[in-house]
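wait is this the right file?? whatever heres the structure
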């Protein structure tokens, strides 16, 4: 479907074409010479470093990619995981993946300038994660900034202090 546009496509948003187990070997962007901006939903299971490295490599295959936007959370409210555990959708694996993506771009001297994370979890969540997700994003932003890549993300729905004192599960508060 996209092949006829591979020489001219500058922006590609496939965040709503979410697939729980994408096959990155078929996700070839190498021939998309003009692609500068790519938006994806969650990129499958990122629990091991091989998957993280493969996902990053495929995303960065577009030779002129300048911006990668990652949509995580409410956009996929059809699954139990998203409805009830959105706060867990940005955890240690996602933090490591962002580092891997930036590290590959920096090591290969690619044109990636910016990564944006769209993460807006519902406050009506069942369980509390171990760590405030925006602390993870702050750490990654500080680290990759040194390599010339900016990390952008939205304002959290609650402050760190509110997060630490909220009663869990939150869903009961909204019934």
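ok assuming it is, sequence goes like this
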């Amino acid at each position: 479907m996209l092949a006829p546009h591979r020489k001219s496509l500058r922006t590609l948003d496939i965040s709503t074409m979410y697939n729980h187990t994408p096959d990155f070997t078929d996700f070839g962007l190498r021939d998309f010479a003009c692609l500068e901006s790519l938006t994806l939903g969650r990129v499958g299971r990122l629990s091991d470093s091989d998957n993280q490295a493969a996902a990053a490599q495929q995303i960065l295959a577009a030779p002129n990619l300048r911006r990668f936007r990652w949509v995580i959370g409410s956009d996929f409210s059809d699954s139990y995981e998203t409805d009830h555990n959105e706060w867990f959708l940005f955890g240690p694996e996602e933090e490591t993946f962002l580092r891997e993506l930036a590290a590959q771009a920096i090591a290969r001297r690619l044109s990636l300038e910016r990564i944006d994370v769209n993460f807006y979890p519902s406050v009506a969540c069942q369980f509390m994660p171990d760590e405030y997700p925006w602390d993870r994003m702050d750490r990654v932003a500080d680290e990759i900034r040194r390599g010339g890549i900016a990390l952008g993300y939205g304002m959290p729905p609650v402050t760190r202090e509110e997060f630490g004192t909220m009663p869990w599960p939150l869903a009961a508060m909204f019934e």
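Residues 92-107 form the longest helix (16 residues). so i think its the right one actually
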